[in-house]
């Protein structure tokens, strides 16, 4: 399988002293579902921003970010934006926050597609309906004619996933894509997202604090702590036979339904 | 303190019927939303918490679980029904009598940073409750603040610090210490560990269990994570759209769950051990 993304000794520092991402190297192949797990402040979101080239100008990067073998760190902003638009898509924690509250979903969706595709509006609408169906929004017309606030959080997140996948990105980045949702909806959306990526053959890097999500949907799991990638392996290996002490501790801290009670 | 600990253990083993500390009887809350419309946030909820035990309430956002907490603490009035503490009605009291009652009920919320003024030192925050409720004078309270920090496994030197200098987990320990310092009869924990990292969450749960044993505290533990709520409670009320759909023995939660909604919640848990 072709390598989609590689990081080579990638480091990021905001203040020039402390590395928020510290010497991370990894390689991700086409079609893999990768989950990066970490607690707050572990550097997992900064890592995603680094891959996208969305770090603030003051941040200092070291090492290389290779997308299909092409180093992104050397590119200027315009070149990076082009790469981002064509090859990388992003799903955020709360898609609703990135939508314009005063415009209907359909209008925003169409505008988004127009920025990247040159096709008649009718064709774009066709694509929108198809994608909304794929994320299990069974009444696309209603969704497209709604304002963001008229949809539930789970529905908005599904719209975000549909939009991100519309452009057939080579790489999908998701930063805590379901953390803002209710537990029951969370499980559905995560499973749908994973299934859809498999169906489309999309490569995804999902960042989460939820080890359970990592264990259940991913091919490969990375664990970050203090900016370092302390664990990297197949989901099976990492969950069953963790190598790093921190991963072991993290796994032991998880409170599960069939554990002995603490009282 | 040692005796007290012992007495609770015996109490539990012999299985005596403890008195009902908190009781809600047919409690409802209706919020007007304008144009003559209203929302029933809590519908005919009844449950009781025995002294020294902990009861959990589980549900998703908007199910009414926090409204229940707010009604118990008097922050929100009940629309109908009765809330009583040790057999005495505490819902619908006037302001002055309310204040007397509510020193016996303490609350711990999700975000500890919003519980403390950012410019108040940890020590002052801990002294405040003791002095305000007339438990001791300022001088003694200063010493007691250090003891309280030790009680929740923190360095007494943290008394000098400001909230932002502590981690979320450390600060939640401080908030818990403050809550129990005035010897409340009931502690309501509303998503008290939800904002914390996994590794910290379990430590806080263990702290809560230890404190409960040491001071024979009564907890009402509200949360959305079934596994977490189950881990430190005896009984769990499952709430959906303002109603309690099922009340279960925490230990046998997965075995006994019968309501479709509870089953749906159980099915939504991603396990790492299975």
Structural description of this entry:
The complex is a heterodimer of chains A (about 260) and B (about 270). Chain A is α/β, with parallel strands linked by helices. Chain A has a single domain (about 5-255), classed as 3-Layer(aba) Sandwich (Rossmann fold). Chain A has helices spanning about 45-50, 75-85, 105-115, 120-135, 140-145, 155-165, 185-200, 210-215, 235-240, 245-255, and strands at about 5-15, 20-30, 35-40, 60-65, 70, 90, 170-175, 205-210, 220-225, 230-235. In chain A, strand 9 (about 220-225) and strand 10 form a beta hairpin. The radius of gyration of chain A is 19 Å and the shape is globular. The N and C termini of chain A lie far apart (about 50 Å). Chain B has about 270 residues and is an alpha/beta fold. Chain B is built from ten helices and ten strands. Chain B has helices at about 1-15, 65-70, 95-100, 120-130, 140-150, 170-180, 200-215, 225-230, 255, 260-265, and strands at about 20-35, 35-50, 55-60, 80-85, 90, 105-110, 185-190, 220-225, 235-240, 245-250. In chain B, the strands form two sheets. A six-stranded mixed beta sheet of chain B has the order 6-7-8-3-9-10, sandwiched between helices. In chain B, strands 2-1-4-5 form a four-stranded antiparallel beta sheet. In chain B, helix 4 crosses helix 5. The relative contact order of chain B is 0.16. Residues about 1-15 of chain B have low confidence and may be disordered.
Structural topology:
The complex is a heterodimer of chains A (263) and B (274).
Chain A: E1 3-13, E2 19-29, E3 33-38, H1 44-52, E4 60-67, E5 70-71, H2 77-87, E6 88-91, H3 105-116, H4 121-134, H5 140-144, H6 153-166, E7 171-175, H7 183-200, E8 203-208, H8 211-217, E9 220-225, E10 228-234, H9 235-240, H10 245-253
Parallel strand pairs in A: 3-8, 3-9, 6-7, 7-8
Antiparallel strand pairs in A: 1-2, 1-4, 4-5, 9-10
Chain B: H1 2-14, E1 20-34, E2 37-50, E3 54-58, H2 65-72, E4 80-85, E5 88-89, H3 95-102, E6 105-108, H4 122-132, H5 138-151, H6 168-181, E7 186-190, H7 198-215, E8 218-223, H8 226-232, E9 235-240, E10 243-249, H9 253-256, H10 260-267
Parallel strand pairs in B: 3-8, 3-9, 6-7, 7-8
Antiparallel strand pairs in B: 1-2, 1-4, 4-5, 9-10
Helix pairs in contact in B: 4-5, 4-6, 6-7
């Amino acid at each position: 399988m072709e390598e989609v993304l590689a990081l080579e000794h990638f480091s990021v520092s905001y203040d020039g002293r402390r590395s928020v991402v510290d010497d991370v190297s990894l390689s991700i192949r086409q079609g893999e579902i990768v989950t990066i797990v970490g607690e707050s402040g572990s550097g997992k979101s900064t890592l995603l921003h680094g891959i996208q080239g969305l770090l603030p100008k003051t941040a200092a990067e070291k090492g290389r970010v290779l997308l299909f073998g092409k180093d992104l760190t050397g590119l200027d902003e315009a070149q990076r934006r082009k790469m981002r638009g064509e090859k990388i898509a992003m799903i955020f924690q709360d898609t609703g926050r990135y939508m314009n509250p005063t415009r209907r979903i359909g209008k925003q969706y169409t505008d988004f597609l127009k920025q990247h595709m040159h096709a008649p509006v009718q064709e774009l609408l066709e694509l929108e309906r198809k994608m909304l169906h794929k994320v299990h929004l069974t009444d696309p017309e209603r969704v497209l004619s709604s304002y963001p606030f008229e949809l539930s959080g789970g529905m908005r997140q599904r719209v975000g996933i549909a939009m991100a996948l519309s452009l057939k990105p080579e790489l999908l980045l998701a930063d805590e894509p379901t953390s803002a949702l209710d537990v029951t909806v969370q499980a559905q959306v995560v499973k749908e997202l994973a299934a859809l990526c498999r169906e489309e053959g999309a490569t995804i890097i999902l960042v989460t604090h939820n080890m359970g999500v990592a264990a259940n949907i991913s091919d490969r799991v990375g664990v970050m702590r203090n900016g370092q990638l302390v664990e990297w392996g197949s989901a099976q290996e990492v969950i069953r036979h963790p190598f790093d002490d921190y991963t072991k501790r993290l796994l032991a801290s998880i409170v599960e339904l069939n554990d002995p009670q603490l009282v | 303190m040692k005796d007290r600990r012992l007495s609770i253990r015996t109490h539990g083993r012999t299985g005596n019927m403890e008195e009902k500390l908190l009781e809600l009887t047919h409690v409802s809350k209706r919020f007007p939303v304008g144009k003559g419309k209203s929302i029933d946030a809590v519908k005919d909820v009844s449950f009781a918490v025995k002294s020294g035990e902990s009861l959990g309430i589980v549900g998703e956002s908007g199910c009414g679980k926090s409204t229940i907490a707010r009604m118990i603490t008097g922050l929100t009035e009940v629309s109908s029904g009765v809330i009583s503490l040790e057999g005495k009605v505490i819902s619908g009291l006037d302001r002055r009598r309310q204040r007397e009652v509510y020193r016996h009920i303490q609350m711990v919320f999700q975000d500890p940073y919003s519980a403390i003024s950012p410019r108040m030192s940890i020590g002052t925050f801990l002294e405040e409750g003791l002095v305000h409720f007339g438990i001791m004078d300022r001088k003694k309270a200063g010493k007691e603040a250090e003891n309280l920090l030790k009680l929740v496994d923190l360095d007494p030197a943290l008394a000098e610090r400001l909230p932002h200098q502590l981690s979320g987990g450390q600060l939640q320990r401080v908030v818990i210490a403050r809550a129990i310092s005035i010897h409340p009869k009931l502690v309501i924990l509303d998503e008290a560990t939800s904002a914390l990292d996994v590794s910290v969450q379990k430590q806080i749960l263990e702290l809560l269990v230890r404190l409960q044993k040491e001071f024979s505290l009564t907890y009402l533990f509200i949360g959305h994570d079934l596994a977490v709520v189950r881990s430190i409670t005896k009984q769990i009320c499952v709430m959906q759209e303002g109603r309690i759909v099922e009340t279960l023995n925490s230990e046998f939660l997965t075995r006994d769950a019968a309501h479709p909604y509870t089953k749906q919640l159980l099915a939504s848990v991603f396990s790492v051990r299975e």
